Amino acid sequence: MNWKKSTSLLTASVLLLGLAAACTDKPAADGNAGSNGEAGGKEAPDVSTTGFPIVKDPITLNFFAGQAASAPPDWNSVEIWKEYAKMTNMNINWQLTPVDSLAEKRNLLLAGGDLPDAFHTARFSSVDLANYGGQGLLIPLNGLIDKYAPNFKKLMEKYPEIKKGLTMPDGNIYSLPTFYDPDFKSVVIGSELWINKKFLDALGMKEPTTTEEFYEYLKAVKTRDPNGNGKNDEIPYAASGFSGLLDQLKGAWGLGNRGNTHSRVDVDPATNQLRFIPADPRYKELLQYMNRLYKENLFIPEILTIKGTEVLAKGKEGLYGSFMYTNASTFGDHKDDYIGANAFTGPHGDRLFSRARSPLVDIGAFAITSKNKYPEATMRWADYFYGEEGSTMFFMGIKDKSYIVKPDGSVDYTDEYKSNPEFGKKYVSWGGGYYPAMLTAKTFKGGESSPENLEAAKKIEPYYPKEVWPPFTYTQDELSRFTSLNTDISTYVDEMTTKFITGDAPFTEWDNYIATLKKMGLDEYMKIYNAAYQRYKK
Amino acid sequence: MRSLRKNWDLYLLIAPVMMYILLFHYVPMYGLQIAFKNFTAVKGIWGSSWVGLDHFERFFNSFYFWRLIKNTLGISLYELVVGFPAPLLLALMINEVSSRRFRKVVQTVTYAPHFLSTVVLVGMVLMFLSPQKGVINHLIQLLGGHSIPFMTEPEWFKTIYVFSGVWQSAGWGSIIYLAALTGIDPGLHEAAIIDGASRLRRIWHINLPSIMPTVVILLILNLGNIMGVGFEKIYLMQNNLNKESSDVIATYVYQSGILGAQYSFSAAVGLFNSLVNFVLLVMVNAVARKVNETSLW
Amino acid sequence: MANQTFGDRFLGVAIYAFLSVVLLVVIYPLIYVISASISDPVPVINGSMWLFPAGFNLTGYAKIFQNQEVLIGYRNTIVYTVLGTAINLVMTVMAAYPLSRKDFSGRGVITGILVFTMFFSGGLIPTYLLIKNLHMINTVWALILPGAVSVYNIIIMRTFFQTGIPGELQEAAAIDGCGNLQTLWRIVLPLSMPILAVMVLFYSVGHWNSYFNALIYLSERGKFPLQLFLREILIKGEMDEMLQGGGTMIGQDQQLLEAETVKYAMVVVANLPIFLLYPFLQKYFVKGVMIGAIKG
Question: Which end of chain A is more exposed for a tag (fewer CB within 10 A), N or C?
Fold first, then answer.
């Protein structure tokens, strides 16, 4: 039995070796940063609370950041970071990872105990934050914000929803957000519903303000040949899928009164209880309206399978009566044909702009880890970008190189920047979003700042919901149940919504649909949702 | 016993491979526990809390569980029935071509689609099947029929999925059979010709049996992957109208990962798939053993 | 006799005809991809281009080659592929040959041990930790060693050895005084050119297309393989990216349209070199030279 003996010996030694190598699976948190922000509370003698430099002696920190494809690949050579390092006396070692492997890499780093000093452009979900914060990997920022983040502190005081949205079930804040100035509505909304002004004029119609007028307009586009070429080739509404229009129109039935971050839940004004929108009778009416549009062929053909890029490309033909996107800038000769639509009044007299996002666009943009020896300085470092000066630098770059200050005080990109996207990447790194900074009309000049976008935003301002919820947070116990309910219910709602609109499911099926939702556990789902909501209200 | 000593060098030969397998495959297997725990990166795999079969229950209790199983298995079996013989037939035919040039051209061209990325492939499929401007529907209309909206009818989904897969990979799959066919003794064919056998009979009685072991092994391995319907292609072809036919386990797991932190859940589902695959493989292998002499072990 | 010749000829013609149809059906997507890579993006997107290029636009290729990192990627991928395939081939033979021998005791058990790993794996995290503890993070070994051999391929090669190499030949060699290794080297391998060629093809393509391990284990851009760079270039134009992110950069809309041609150009650039491997290997698909040796 010689070979058996030697093989087993060999096997055993390999296994032992391997296990030894693999099982140094030590928990990554040493938890010495304290569990309630006290460590950052005492005055660190060499960190300035205002002004620059931030520290007297230079320090180096490791930041781990997610790099979207539209962002530069190496932030160590980006001008604003080089400049900022000089200003602050803090050298940041940027470790980037492409966005699609961000979550994996993050998990791996944490499992292996290789914490960076901070996560930047981190895309943490509220679940992640509660998790990692609760385990001590990320430190609570409450005390640090108070003493070392004058800009952000001011923002929190002005907009109480920030604090509410960032606070985790355990009462701590573990992250800094991507924040859009709520007054800069066009960027908060993002994409708009655009209506073809040229067509309106040709048809002799005025801009639609009710859902019925919108329907009439679409019909007219289809049948009365507004582009005058003798063919009925116009496309009344173009988009990829129904969801954009659904979100836009639900306000006309009074649905979505807490904003679109919670696209399926709002508050029923009659009972003051949470309402599951897709089960509401008014949702049925909305779907019936959409079904009418669909049956009369008012949507772009193959709306369900067409890709976004194809919709955009086709826009150049100038055949769209209406469409939904940031703006029409890719439509070549037809880019000036459009105006932003208003919020429509529905059959019950409601007029609400339901596609409102929360200004707290992403809550987990920046977080400080327990490994960080200089949390105070790090907080000051991040805080700059929530003030006007920092925001300008972050979005515009370096003065006179990538942007200029106009005589009226406003800023704009240099021509070189505007003509060559690659040029911009040498100066700024905000491409792709999810950054920890404040974005305001004064400091951001991207696509959403065009005059058309600003005008459109002004129009719908009066109909903006009074309160827009940011994402809610859930406890660990709630989470697994909530996720499985959410997955199943969302799948069902999405499928049935599409089928009702296309007519594949007749409206006689509606009661069945509601019954199925109940069977799937809708009540339990809403109960958990409500628990999270109550926590938010506090 | 004597053979053991006689073949000591063979054991030595295979040893490094076994060490590699042990180190890189068996050592990390402790990770299988994740399926039974609530994994959190901080506590690591050993430290995370044990939840037993919770994740599995969650999966089994999903409203859509049976639909997912039905679709996953349905697609796999359909693929097997259509996609398994195709490369074999192709190889047998190519092997009969006497013109070396034509052979080379056919081989090279048919194996090329394998290199197209899934995104590009699906893009093309969608284009051809478009009810408005797709080539296929043009043909249908020419022949007097009505345009069929292929991608939004659940009944068509599996067919489109499988046939586009054959289109893409039949050529690549035939390579192995072509290699096997080169090992056939030409003497056998010469003898058969002298005996008056037609080409068809020769293919049936010589070529096919000679490569049968390869065919059987590949069949067994394929059956052992029955739960393995991949994510990307399905996801790109799926939409709300065809979901009843196109929702598979992989896309479901992806959906549930959207809220975040679903590591353990996807591990549990993965383990379930692997278990089913493995059990099936063992059964099929046992059958193969009884029926012929080729089997995995 | 006349009947058979007719039957044979009919079959021959039928086969030619069928294969020609197959050829046409299959060559179409290839022509399409090449045309799309040099067309104007708009006709490609709306489907009006269906065979020959519409307009002439090389921005797809320009965008790819402008990026100097693409050349670095090419170099790296070639190195990884050659190194990786060499290791793969050697390891596969080292396992397949013993397993093909009927007199190799324990082969059932060993095969079982190998096959088990095709189904059950510990997952990314333990493997990552292992690699980390072996200090292989950010090295070429992290890309090559975890996948050093494929059990699937071992089994295929074993099957070939079992059926393609007559046992009598090996016995004869043994009688002549050849040891196992010599038999392998002098007799089995030379007769196995086709399967070796197939393995080279399979493994090479696998390495060439791989990107996931690089994504996870490499942090130095200078070591990135081609696929990683190409994915960056491609995703730049994807729409979902834009709608989620904070604000659209100016000019990004144009990039969106160009992304279509980039997609196709990328397929060509990424795959042309490896695609040429098969025609090159085809000359090894030759009937075993020594088959006659048994009779003789």
Answer: C
